Model the fold of this input.
Amino acid sequence: MTSTLLDAVLFETFSQCYDPPFEVIENFIEGGPTHVREALRAALENVPERVLRAMDADARAQAEVCFARADTDNQARLHVVSEHIARCIQSARIAEVAKPPSASARPYGHSALSGIDVDAEGLVALSAFEVDGDALCVRDHAFFMMPPVPGSNAAYWLLEQLQRHGLGDCVRVRLDPWLHGPAAEMRGRFYRAAIWARPLDWNRIRTLRETEHGRWTPGKMSRRFAQTDYAWTPHDDEVDFLCEELPILEEVDVRGARYLHAVYNKRRHLLTHLDGALRIYSGDNLAARALEHVRNAGKAGTRAKIFRTDSPVKPEVFSSIAEAFFFWNYDVARYFGAQLPADF
Done:
């Protein structure tokens, strides 16, 4: 199936669903509005036979688990269509945030956001919303933070850490361009995760005389990225921290590179600036970027800020926020002190 086109009915329906397409597609087929059921049935019937034949054993096993109520042929069709919908929505999300920020960009033209200032980086004050789980509620409407990687819940743990450490009044965040709806219908979710952080050796960072850097390649439990670079670069009274997780080339149109930047003040023993962003690449640009380390990569890609604060942040708080921003990247988690099984 082409990855660039999606029926407008299906795009509107699934882009405003918190749950991934594979979890809700059968519900829409059985009990959705007539026009949605018809669009889904047409999509299932139009899956090319060559696509079904090309499904490997892993994909068929996933289809069997996800769609147990269907027969084998329909399981395969449901898998192909739900994956296609998810990819198209994520591709549209990446394309939208790569545009120059403006007050009229999605979702900032929505009436519920009237009067809420959108800055030059496309960010809004977190304090303008009532946080319910990971839903950002205002005027009975729920919005969500832009997820830094595919998955509507991918910003949940970052949002949790920002609030836990009292940064809700001084952080600005980017909103997901597509996912929003009435608060009564889109209540926030609550999760637990068996990962926590402890501080780095800040004495070593404080006394750096030259750049300290590293690179990780993903382990078997990591999700859909090629490599992660980090660097600490000392200046007179400050140390800049950069960390970037590059997506795999096959997902360059649906996944940006998670990019974190912080400024550590050695004299005050505080982070005086912290921001997380996506760096969005074309295939050629990503291949060129992968040949360089982040410390030498400069202003690569198209940058879209996800959150930012210029308020002082304690080092131990920075560790937990960095880990939450890179959630599902177990190398970053371990670097910042998470207790993980040896085989992660």
Q: What stands out?
A: The chain has a mean pLDDT of 89. The longest helix spans residues 72-97. Residues 8-97 form one domain. The longest strand covers residues 270-280.
